[in-house]
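Give me the fold.
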Amino acid sequence: MSAYRFCRTDDIPLLVDAWNRCGLPHDPTAAPLTVAGFKQEIRELDLWCSSCMVGFEADEPVAVVIGCKRPPDTLVRRIAVHPDHLRKGHGRHLLTSLSAKLSILGPPRLVAEVPADNAQARALFEACGWEHDRTYYDLVLDGESAGVPSGAITVVTPDDLPDAVPSDDSQSAWQCARATVEKRRERIQGLALVSADRLEAGVLYTREAEEVAIWAVQTSGDGAPLSAIVRDVERRESKPAVLHGWPDRSLSAFRAIREALRFVTAAKPA
């Protein structure tokens, strides 16, 4: 017998365990979710336990959805069904239950950013009537720099790069949105390349476990100044740098390593 329930703040350990049980078998190379990491996502991504749901068979978690909300959107941050319990309708039930709840309480639009190579997840959202409306790319430096632009690389803050932080209506990836950058402000670091008469390019980034994650960029469109900054970030941090959530695969001196498809739908009653 299957049972489902929405969660509360005291269910954080349950949600972490449910994700690790159900999600990690689909990606054995991924790092396990921790309670500390979950709480960080509450602070930075507006994850809400009340937008999370766990499916059970007996007392065992077999499916989980984890949601974030920022009006007018709710993000399906994670969804997974244990490999032993696939094709039993758990994933569809989680999505339709969340949609029905949000049709009453809001926010009214649901979004999901799905790895392009995750065929099962894509099929689930498509089967539930969600529509793909845009694509985001994660980029890394492509080969050696063709040359170092003139200018000085200097430490900056988010306030020094006002054009780097996207506007509220920019439809940027959730991790790169203005609200996320602001909530990460205590962890955010920045570098900019400044020439004699202008700021050529700048980046805002955080140190993560395996990489330097670049969340916001200010550039005139020329890849050379940006690539120079990213190389300097990698040198300073001794880690590879990844530019997250770029709206276009094409950026001079960079190449795409990951692709995410954004799916959207309107909340509706069951």
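The domain at 2-135+260-266 is CATH 3.40.630.30 (Aminopeptidase).
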